[in-house]
Each structure stands twice: as C-alpha cells, then as structure tokens.
What we know:
Layout: E1 3-8, H1 22-39, H2 44-50, E2 52-63, E3 72-80, E4 86-95, E5 100-112, E6 117-118, H3 122-129
Antiparallel strand pairs: 1-3, 2-5, 3-4, 4-5, 5-6
Amino acid sequence: MTFSVRIAVRGYELDTQGHLNNVVYHQYGDHARWECLRAAGISIDDLREAGVGPVTLENTIRFHRELRAGDEVEVTCAFEWGTGKTFRIRQEFRGADGEPAAELTGVGGLMDLRARRLLPDPGTHWRALARTPAVLGL
C-alpha cells in the first residue's frame, strides 16, 4: 500500500532561483511520514506512552524537476520491511500533472527512548502500535 498527501508549495519555501528549497523536500517527506503514521492510527502520544520514537538514519534525494510557488505536489510514503533493526522508506514527489519532481529514499529505525538503542525487528513494534497496520505495509 502506498500512502500519499498533497502539499501546496508556499512562497516562503523557495530558494533564490525561485524553486522549492532542497531542505523543504526533507520537511515535506517528514510531514508525509507523520501523516502516514497518523493514518495507520499511531499518534505521538502513543509513541511516548510506548517509550519509543522513530529515528532517521539516512535520507537521499534525487531531483527530477523544479517545483515552484503555487504548485501542488503529491508526496507518497511506502515502507519496506526487512530483517534487522532498520527499515526503508521510499517517497515520491509528483506534480499535479503526475510527473516526478523528486524521490526521497530513507533508512529509519525505532528507538527505545529509555535505553537510547534501536529496537530489533521494528516492523513488529509498529504493527503492535498501529490500528491499521496495512497503511504501513504490515
């Protein structure tokens, strides 16, 4: 399952060339990931109560074309689960015409906030927290 959210590019998010500043892609990606968790039925309060928190270990962005003020962009979020302590998140940024503007690939983990260590098999923990785990691909 691929989750998505639409975001309108705001003027104050532009760089000196008049297109979306590269840092804002990270913010849009982060927003889409939190909205995906919310759609799965996981809140920040749920995470705090469980004593866990998501961490970003790596993000890579590949740009395809510019986004400008007033453009609407659809940001997808798809989790990929494997073995070990980490998982991948693939995100696409598509303009209103459906054409790709950028891709963000990330590696994340789920941290035990007391021990300050990544939990093994994070998918199991996310599944237990989610009311709708299918949104997370679980």
